[in-house]
Every structure is written in structure tokens, then in C-alpha cells.
Amino acid sequence: NFLTTVAGDTSSNLVVSPLSAQVALAMAAYGAGGKTATQMRKSLLLPEDNQLGQSGYKSLIERLNGVKEVELRIANKIYPAKQFVIKSAYKELTARKFLSRCEELDFHNSEAAARTINSWCEQQTNNRIKDVIARGSLHPNTALVLVNAAYFKGSWAKRFDPSLTADRPFHVNDKISKIVPTMFLKHTFRFGHLPEVNARFIELPYRGNELSMVIILPKEVNGLKAVRDNLHKVNLAARLKRTGPSHVELSLPKFKIETTLNLEQSLKILGMTDMFQDGADFSGIADSGLKISKVVQKTFIEVNEEGSEAAAATVIVAMPISLDAQPPPPERFIVDRPVYYAIYHRDLEVTLFNGFLHQPSVS
């Protein structure tokens, strides 16, 4: 529900990282108590057994950081104010289970603190995520900043030939079309139909075959809304597992998207309201009263003939409370209308990045 809640009724291009948001919020949730913890744990689907959940996050981060033949990095960091005392048990928890490091900052010099955090995010995302902490986001009374960064760069298992890229029409809706650079590839892919959302899907693996891009193409030009509204009905992981390879002629636009989101309203819709209020309980982090003042995510994706590059940073700012036979004819999968897409870990069934492409742009 994260993507559809964030997207709302927008018809703009969108990329988010549910994984980055989940990890950052889970770090905060394991320091929460009372009603704050109840809401966060329910919304994030955290298991009742803390040891099970925390070890699960550690295994997930280690597994993703160990993916072969592509670049994939998941990193966490905590920035407490110099005068703010974090409980040693929380520091140990985030270090051991979330592989997070801790660096004290002087938030009285808010511009210098912002530069430090932004510099770390840039380093972790190969300079793709810049200025995730905007001017004025930090204040002298900022107590704590939690940051998760996710970065992916992978080459297609079967690359597109750039000489076959050509300008082709893309139907933004049933009235507006534009000409966009569109790649072409004839190859064998997992491909199938999703009658529950009146759409088709295709899976494009990256080198190493651990990660792939999944695209859901509505059968109707204006069909993306129906896909978005009913995406929860689709068990894509199960469908992919029981789908065999097909010969496909694929046409896919090149595109680049960058999105900056203030997630407060979306998280409240998802049930996490208490953490933003003066009565928030983060007693597992510190004895001093804390509430979340800001949750921001900045995300980037680029898709071209070589492969895909995607990056995200999620920042939580806490403030003190105040076959041999003749093959059949190839299927044609022409991405010439708005689609859903996701970068997905095949074995873990984890979505790293996903979004909606309404209007391809490479600028």
C-alpha cells in the first residue's frame, strides 16, 4: 500500500523505495513504546517477536548487500545531537541489527549538519541523491536524524542494442501522445496476463539473475488507474514463479525520474499518527521526550539500453517534544502508455524501488 498511498491521484511520474522507507521506519519503531509502537508495528507488519524481526532485518540487509554482478548498497546511519543522550541499548541494537553507524552533530550549526548528512547520502548513492536535507529542515533543537540510503545499478542480462532505439509514439492518455526514444529487444522473457487488473506483465532480469525489473502494462491506454487501485489483488511473486519463458518483441522507452516526497501525510494515512504528536513515545531511544517532525524520501531511477540505476534516501528527523519445437510467433510487449514498474529481488520477493511511468523523459 505504500506506493499507492504516496501516489494518491497524481498523474506525474513517480519513483519510491518502499524498502528504504521500511528500514528507516523500522529503526525508529524498535525504539518506540506504547501506542506509538503499536501503530508503527502494525503498519510496518513487524512480528511480535522482536528477536525474529530484528534478525530478519539484519539478514535482509546482509543478503541485499551481498548480491553479485550488480551494485546494490543498503546503508543506515544515526545522527544524534551532541547534547542529546541516546540509550546505549538502542545504539547497540541499530549497530548490530541494522548495521548502522552513529555520528554526533552540532545542530546549532544547522547548515554544516545538513552538509554532513547530505554528503553521506551522496557517497552511499554514487552521487545520485543530493540535498535530501533541504535548507531550513534542521533546527538548533533537532535531537536526532535517522537515515537510510539505498543504491542500485545493474546491467540487463540481455542488453538492448542502441542502434535499434528509435523515436516512437507514447500515449500519455487517450487524447495526448508524444514521441519518445524507445528501445527494442527480441528475446525470451517471463511474460503473462493479469486479468484481475486487465493488464499484462513482463520480467526483465539483470545480470546475475537475482534482481529484475517487472513492468505491468495496462491493456487500455487509460488503464493505469485500475492497475494502481487494484495492485493489492495481484500476487505477482506467485505469478512470476509459475510463468514460463516466452519469445517477446519488447519496446520500452528510456526514462529518468527523480522524486522528493514529504511522507508525513502518507504515513498518517497508513496508520502512523502518534509518532508525529507531542505524546509520541520513543522511550526506547532516549529518556528525553521525542517526536518525529519530518520523514523525507528522495529517489532516483534511470532506465536505458545498458540497464537501470536507482537510488533512494529516507530521512527521519526527530525533535524534542515541545524449448526444441518450432517456437510460436513472439508476443509483442509495447510500452506505449503509462505503466507500473518495480525493481525486485526474485528470491527474497522484496521490492527495492517501484513507481508509475506516466510520461517518459530522459532529461
UniProtKB/TrEMBL annotation:
Residues 1-360 form the Serpin domain. Coiled coil: none annotated. InterPro entries: Serpin_dom, Serpin_fam, Serpin_sf, Serpin_sf_1, Serpin_sf_2. Keywords: Protease inhibitor, Serine protease inhibitor. One of its GO terms (molecular function) is serine-type endopeptidase inhibitor activity. One of its GO terms (cellular component) is extracellular space. SMART domains: SERPIN (SM00093). Belongs to the serpin family. PANTHER family: GH10112P-RELATED, SERINE PROTEASE INHIBITOR, SERPIN. This is Serpin B6. The gene is LOC107221920.
